Amino acid sequence: MAEIPAVVFVIDDDPSMRGAIEDLVSSVGLQVKLFASPLEFLESERPDGPGCLVLDVRLPGMSGLTFQKELVRVGVTLPVIFITGHGDIPMSVRAMKAGAVEFLTKPFHDQELLDAIHAAIERDRDGRREQVLITELRERYTTLTERERRVMTLVVVGRANKQIAAELSLSEMTVKVHRGQVMRKMQAGSLPALVRMADQLGVPTATS
Fold this sequence. Notes:
Rossmann fold; Arc Repressor Mutant, subunit A; 2 domains; five-stranded parallel beta sheet
């Protein structure tokens, strides 16, 4: 299946800066969408594909840092690259702690921005692949019966079949059957693989 093209979204109230970034990003074959304000971005139709957001820190009405929090609130998970002409260390620390990929102070080198964009897009692709995997795991997990889920929970915390049998008032043979069903339905080739799946699903994988 062909990979969905990445899109670089740019929010900056300076038309000349928007144009310069568009020219730069387009020159390396990436799609670009430009916005003069956060509101314009939020009201736009955006493709559901990989990308990143190049965001000016100083914007009329709402700072880039405030908008970064708003993105989290509305469920937009695009990696953010901040650009600013007024950067300071506390501001950049706040931005990075909130999950920004990079914080570039104008004037920056073209390659610095391109490197940050490529890193951000790769981060977004990885996140999307992880989300697809989690969705598939959840679908597999829903095929387990309630008893199979209880067996799985005990298996991944290291209980032996005999211990599971005693805890669930089952025969060891029945536990082995359930365990085999869990491995088959979850498509786990080994116990470590099942433990990793349980961890990704939020199933406890260690005894308290």
